[in-house]
Amino acid sequence: MIISIASGKGGTGKTTVATNLTAAAGGSLALLDCDVEEPNAHLFLEPEFTDSETVDAPIPEVDMNLCSHCKKCMDICRYGAIAVMGKKVLVFPELCHSCGGCTLVCPEKAIKEVSRPIGKVNVGRLKHLPGPAFVQGYLKIGQVMAPPIIRHVRTHEGKKDVTIIDAPPGTSCPVIASMKNTDAVLLVTEPTPFGLNDLILAVEAVKLLKIPHGLVINRAGMGDDAVYEYAKKQGVPILMEIPFDRRIASAYSKGKLLVDALPEYKEKFITLFEDLKTLAREDRRTAQ
Amino acid sequence: MKELVILSGKGGTGKTSLTASLATLAARDSKAMFCDADVDAADLHLIMNPKILETHDFISGNEAVINPDLCTGCGQCFEVCRFDAVSQSEDDTYNIDPLDCEGCGVCVDLCPEQAIDFPEKNCGQWFASETRFGTMIHARLGIAEENSGRLVALVREEARKRAQTRNLELILTDGPPGIGCPVIASVGQATAVLIVTEPSVSGIHDMKRVAELAAHFKIPAMVCINKYDLNPDQARAIEEIAKEKGLTMVGKIPFDKAFTEAMVQGKSVVETHGDSQATQMMEEIWKRINTSPAMAQERIC
Asked: Whole-prediction pTM value?
């Protein structure tokens, strides 16, 4: 079972929910931090890494002894990543999407692919909690392509009974790469106009992917009630509320888990975990 | 003409609320243009309340679509697709999932039956609007669409063209979170970036990454700490990091409910809480930004 945690708007509490769920539930669980641009889950869970994998993107390398300057590589490339200029061939690695088209069409077999590192994936377990596995991805500074790293992180899903995915903010390709083929999506929002605006976008994305979803309202009491009205109207169940409380903000700022700072939350996160499992299971049954 | 891009690395540190306040202050001498480069989850319009004057489709890239009448089921597309977008249907022809299609066109070019169409994709819309602060260029990327970097580049280019024609001195751009594709598209050729961070372990971790990104592209960076009093120790740590990395500190804003109250009213805190400490701080920050060496260079021509 795979549960992804997403939000639309950044900073609403995705990582808070993902890390506290992991800590509260424990057991056969894997937390995958797919916010590869700015991964934060490790700051709260103290993982011990046992392995680090480089994520490479293949890019073309042209053997100029074989190249006949036919320009077929340049013609197939939709990204302007390879250009034939007279007797020269230029490759622009940061524009390359690694589709392999140039290598396939080269009639002289002058192009081979070489690896270019675009990020890394760290794999480990938690220092203080037996059971859960922890995986995080890091996009290298200056690189544009997050989805290949997210896909690499997700090769580690399914090894435990439940996989929890901490997704990046937004609604574009990195978010889709993180939510696609998960059994349930937990959306985290805050009751403010910005929170609502971005929640609506996130719900649209989840509906497009046809994944059952529930809602956590973080910083409840902070802004207005419009998020509640929206959730009711759309039939999105509110599975948990976390109040707007300075003690919570303070614990978070220090990298402390909510379940440690305010132990009464442990029970609440366990309930949330059970609700999520039900949500994921039920919908699969109706789908069949 | 100059462009200041507001970034944060981490989402939810207050980029948009601060951008709105700076926009209010910039509008006092009415020489600024505004741009929302967070095309993925845009929020600035909720405060700027734009009156949309122009709407344009954002056509970008193409999408491969198999014509089932021509498909012989040879499986060539399935073989060449690197993005796992092609799957076999029940009748042995093939299908392409638009969500996975990268638009590389390799299957289109290599299909022996020429059975794959490659229509252009409408990935969203962009707008030119009037607001009470001045002109604003903003956009809405379609849900689950790609090419957010291209759309960011496009809205910034439009803002720049219009600012130039009107002899405006400044473009204020609200950037996206993260450090990937749309962020990189939002900093190219900018005069400077303002990193809005918060005093938390995540805030610090993410601010370091976005500062490294700015340094990577040689864009001068300034830092402001939002809600600094939530954890003064972490705020001090941020100041130390800023010093170490040569980032200009332009201010520390205390936690203030006034920001949320203003947001709920669709206004900036400078508008709703004119005599508050928050507004005073915003005015000071605005002054420091304008006199900082980071903004002294002419980078856009």
From this structure: 0.95
A10 touches chain B (CB under 8 A): yes
Residue A285 — pLDDT band, cuts 50, 70, 90? low
Domain ranges of chain A: 2-54+120-287, 64-109
Structure tokens given for A43: 């700051």
> For residue range B60-109, what is the model confidence (pLDDT) as tens digits?
999 999 999 999 999 999 999 999 999 998 888 899 999 999 999 999 99
Q: How many other CB atoms are there within 10 angstroms of residue A50's CB atom?
A: 11
Q: In this structure, which topology does domain A64-109 adopt according to CATH?
A: Alpha-Beta Plaits (3.30.70)
Q: Which of residues 238-267 of A touch B (CB under 8 A)?
A: 246, 249-250, 252-255
- Could you confirm whether domain B64-118 is CATH 3.30.70.20? yes
Q: What ipTM does this complex have?
A: 0.94
Residue A111 bridge partners (DSSP): A62
**Among the four given CATH numbers 3.40.50.1260, 3.40.50.300, 1.25.40.10, 2.60.40.1820, the one describing domain A2-54+120-287:** 3.40.50.300
Whole-number percent of chain A with pLDDT over 70: 98
CA distance B219 to B176: 16
Q: Which residue, among A5, A204, A253, A258, would best test binding to B if mutated, counting the most B CBs under 10 Å from its CB? A: A253
- Strands A2-6, B32-36: parallel, antiparallel or unpaired by DSSP? unpaired
